[in-house]
Amino acid sequence: MSGGDPGVGLRGRRIECQALDRVLAGVRAGESQVLVVRGEAGVGKTALVTYLLENASGCRIARASGVESEVELAFAGLHQLCAPFLDRIERLPGPQRDALATGFGLSPGDPPDRFLVGLAVLSLLAEVAEEEPLVCLIDDAHWLDRVSAQTLAFVARRLLAERIAMVFAVREPSDAHELEGLRELRVRGLDDADASALLDSVLGRPLDERVRDRLVAETRGNPLALLELPRGLTPTELAFGFGLPETMPLTSRIEEGFLRRLEPLPADTRRLLLAAAVEPVGDATLLWRAAELLDISADAASVAELAGLIEIGAQVRFRHPLVRSAACRAADTHELQEVHRALAEVTDADRDPDRRAWHRAHAAVGPDEAVAEELEHSAGRAQERGGLAAAAALLEEATRLTLDPAQRAQRALAAAQAKHQAGESDAALALLHMAQAGPFDELQHANVDLLRAKIAFASRRGNDAPPLLLSAGRRLEALDATLARETYLEAFSAALIVGRLSRGADMMEIAQAARAAPAPVSTPLASDLLLDGLALLVTEGRAEATPVLKRAISAFRSPCLSTDEGLRWGWLAGRVAQALWDDESWEVLCIRHVRLAREAGALTALPIALRSRIFVHTFWGELDNGATLAAEARVVSDATGTKLAAYGTVALAALRGGEADTSRLIEATIEDVMSRGEGMGLGISHFLAALLHNGHGRYAEALTAAESACEYEDLGVFTWALAELIEAAARTDRREVADAALQRLSESTLAGATDWARGVEARSRALVSDDDAAEPFYRDAIECLGRTRVRVELARAHLLYGEWLRRANRRLDAREQLRTAHDMFAAMGAEGFCERARRELLATGETARKRTPETRDDLTAQEAQIAKLAGDGRTNPEIGAELFISPRTVEWHLRKVFTKLDVSSRKQLRAALPDSGRTAVTA
C-alpha cells in the first residue's frame, strides 16, 4: 500500500477540498457520485483521498489500492474493495452470485462473463448502501488489474440513484483508459506563492531567490517534488543551484530524489525496503517472515521509518508509490531474485498459490519447468475466474521459463490464444510468431493458422479473414474433421460480413471447400446442417439448398440445441430463416438467441442478438418494442465497450420516416462499415435508404439506393432490396429493371414457399402487371400476408392496392384500402408511409388526421424500457439485472414514469403504455 503526506499536500487545495465536500454532501443526500482525481505523481492525490476519508462521517468506507506488482492478478483490486461485504453475497440473484463467487475463487464454475461480475458488484454495493451511504475509495487506480479496472468502471457508469460515491485516484500520464469520460478533478501543482512558502518551510534556511524560482518552476508546484528534490544537496549546491537535477520528466526526478535517500542507508534496510516493495498486499507478517529468511536485522525497519520512507504496523505503507519504484530500481537482478525467492518460500501454497507462483517466476535465474507448470496452473485458475488478461500474462511468463522447444511453442500458442481472448491482438500475434518457431505437428500448425485468422477477423472485421479461415479449414481437414467444419462455417460467417468488400476468398471458394470436406463423424449437429445448406445455396442454388437449410432451422429450433451452438451460430441461423421467408422461425430463433445470451451472461453476444430481434420488431411493425430493445443494446454496448454498427436503430428510423435524421444515420453507418470492412453493412444501409425513400414516395432516390443494395447478394437483405427495387422501378417507368428484379425475387420466394414469400411476390407482380391482371395479385398479397406477423408488408400491400384503385377511379374501394393502410401505419408510428397514405386518401376526397404526439412520447428510451418491463410484471431486481442498473435506480425511474403517465400503480402502467396488446419484448 502507499500513502501520501496529507498535511503538506493540502496546502493551497481549497478548491479541490470543496469539490470533495460536494461529493460527500451529494452521497449523504442520496445521490450517486463518481469522481476521478487525476494528477502527476506527488501532486497530492492521496492527500485528497485521505481528506475525503477523514471527513466521511456518517458514511461507510470501502477501500482498494492498485499495486504495480499485482497488475496481472485478476480480481485483486476488486476483491480488496468487496471483501468486507462478501457475507452478503447470498442475497444476490443466482447468476450474479455465481459469477462473483467464481471470479473471487470462492466456488468452482464456468468462467463468468466479466460484465455479469460487474452487475454483481453493483448489486452488492447497492445492497450495502441501502443501510448507510457508501464511499468507495480506489487509490492508485492506474495500477489496478485489468478485470478490476473494467469492472469498477462499469459500476461507476451504472450508478444513478444509489447512495454510493466512487472516487478514483489516477496518476497522469497513465493507461487507465477505462475511466475516461467520467467526471474528473484535475489536481495541478501549487501556485508560485504556496510553492515558495512550502519550499521555505522545509529548507529552514535562506535560499537564493533565483534558485528558489527555478525550483518552483521546474517542479511546477508539485508538493512532493518540492520536498524531495532539495534533499541530499549541500547548502552550497542549493545556494547556487549547481546541484539541481538536469532536465528530465518530473516523476523521474522525484524518483531520483528517493534513490539518493536510499544510497546511504544500511544494506539490511535497503533489502527490507526491497522486500516490502515486491510484496504486493502490504502484509507485515509476511514481510517479517521473509526478512527472517533473508537474515535482515530487526532494527532495519526503524532506520527506514526514521528516514520517512515507510511505516510498518499491521499493514505496510510506503511514504509514496515512487519510494516503492525507487527501492526496486536501486536493486540489481540478483537482489530481486533473492527477495522474490524468500517471499515465495513464506507464501502459503494452498491459500495463495498464484502469488507464490509469480514470486517463484521472478526468482528463477533461467528456464525452470517446475515454475512454468505452476504458472500454467495459475493461468488455468485465472481463466476459470474469467481473468483472461491475467491468464495471458501468466502463460507468457511460463513460456519465458520453458526450455524444451516443443513445450515452449505449445505454451506460446496457449498464451497467444489467451491474449486474443483478452483483446490484445498485437501481443497475440507476437506470441504466435514465437510459437511458429517450435517443432509443431500439422494440427498445431493448423491451430496457429486458425488463430491468426480469428485475430484478423476480430481486429479488422473482415477483408483478409475469409481466406485465412479457408486456409486453416483446408489444413485441418485431415487432422480434425470436426474443427475443420467449424472453421468453414466461421469462414462463411466472415465472408457474409465482409460481403462486397472481400479481397480474397469469395463465397463460392468457401462453399466448394466445405462441400469437399469430410462429413460429420457422428450425427450431424445443427451447425453441420447449416454449413451443408449454405454450401449448397452458393454452389447449386436455392432449390437444392432449401430442404437442407430448413432441416438446419428445425435443428436450431430444437430444445436439444446446446447453449454453445445457440450462442455461437444463433445470429446466422436467424439470418437463414429470414432468407427462407420463414417468419415464424425467424422470430423464434431471434427470441431464443436473446434469451440464451441473457441467461448465460454473454454480454458481448447480447447486442448482436438484440440487433437481430430489432429487425423482427421492425418488420412486425412493433417500432416501440424495437426502440426498447435498441435502448437495451446501447446500454449493453456502452457497458461492455462493444462497438457494433447500429443497423437496428437505423431500421427503426427508416420505417419511422424521419428523412433528415435517418439520412444522417445511414451516411454515418456507411462510413462506419467501410472503415470496419463490413460490406454487409453497405447492403443493409442501401436497402434501408430505399425503404425510407419509397415510404415518402421519392421513387427516383429509392431506385438508386435499391440498385446499390442489389449489386451484391447479401444473405436475406438482397431479397428485401429486390422488393424495394421493383416498387421504385415500377413507379419510375423502368419496367425492364422491375421485370428483371421480379425474376430474381421469384427464384427466392418459390423456394421459400411461405405466406410471407407468396405475399411479397404477389404484391411485386401486381406492380408490373397490366391493369386487368394486377387486382388478383393485390388480393392474393393481402390474403397471404394477412396470415403472417409481417404487418409492415401487409400494410404496404393495402397501400399499393389502394393507390392502384384510386388510379382506376374506384374511389370508394380505394378509401377502404388506404384507410386500412393509414391506420396500420399510424399505429406502428411509420410516419413516412402514413403520410403517403394520408395524401392518397386526400386525393380520394377523404380527410385523415395527422398523428399527434402523446404524453407517452415524453418518456426517455430508458424510461419506456423500464415501464414496459414493469408493465409485463417484472420485479425491480429483474429489471435491474436486465438493464445493468440497481433496483434502486429502477425505482427512481418508475417514479418519473408514474408522474409522466399520470398513473399510481403498476397495474395501471400497462394500459397507459403504447402497443399494450402486443407481444412482450422479452425473450
Describe the structure in brief.
The protein is mainly alpha-helical and 923 residues long. 66% of the residues lie in helices and 4% in strands.
On the 0 to 100 scale, the average pLDDT is: 85
How many separate helices? 47
Low-pLDDT sequence parts: 1-8, 240-245, 852-856, 916-923
Strand percentage: under 5%
Total DSSP E strands: 7
Strand order of the largest sheet: 2-3-4-1-5
- Percent in helix: 55-70%
* Class based on secondary structure composition and strand pairing: mainly alpha
The largest sheet, given as strand count, sense and whether it forms a barrel, is: 5 strands, parallel
- Computed CA radius of gyration, to the nearest angstrom: 33 Å
**Overall morphology:** globular
**Terminal-residue CA separation:** 47 Å
Task: Tell me what the structure shows.
The protein is mostly helical and 923 residues long. 66% of the residues lie in helices and 4% in strands. The protein has a 5-stranded parallel sheet with strand order 2-3-4-1-5, with helices on both faces. Strands 6-7 form a two-stranded antiparallel ribbon. Strand 6 and strand 7 form a beta hairpin. Helix 4 (76-82) crosses helix 7 (146-158), helix 25 packs across helix 27 and helix 31 packs parallel to helix 33. The protein is globular and about 105 Å long.
Outline the fold blueprint.
Blueprint: H1 6-9, H2 14-28, E1 33-39, H3 45-54, E2 60-65, H4 76-82, H5 94-103, H6 114-129, E3 134-139, H7 146-158, E4 164-171, E5 184-186, H8 192-203, H9 209-219, H10 223-228, H11 235-240, H12 250-262, H13 267-278, H14 284-293, H15 300-306, E6 310-312, E7 316-318, H16 321-330, H17 333-346, H18 353-363, H19 369-384, H20 388-400, H21 405-421, H22 425-436, H23 442-460, H24 465-476, H25 481-498, H26 507-516, H27 526-539, H28 542-557, H29 563-579, H30 583-600, H31 606-620, H32 623-640, H33 647-656, H34 659-676, H35 679-695, H36 699-709, H37 717-731, H38 735-752, H39 755-767, H40 771-785, H41 791-807, H42 811-828, H43 831-843, H44 861-871, H45 876-883, H46 887-901, H47 906-912
Parallel strand pairs: 1-4, 1-5, 2-3, 3-4
Antiparallel strand pairs: 6-7
Helix pairs in contact: 4-7, 5-6, 6-7, 8-9, 12-16, 13-14, 13-15, 13-16, 13-17, 14-17, 17-18, 18-19, 19-20, 20-21, 21-22, 21-23, 22-23, 23-24, 24-25, 25-26, 25-27, 26-27, 27-28, 28-29, 28-30, 29-30, 30-31, 31-32, 31-33, 32-33, 32-44, 33-34, 33-35, 34-35, 35-36, 35-37, 36-37, 37-38, 37-39, 38-39, ...
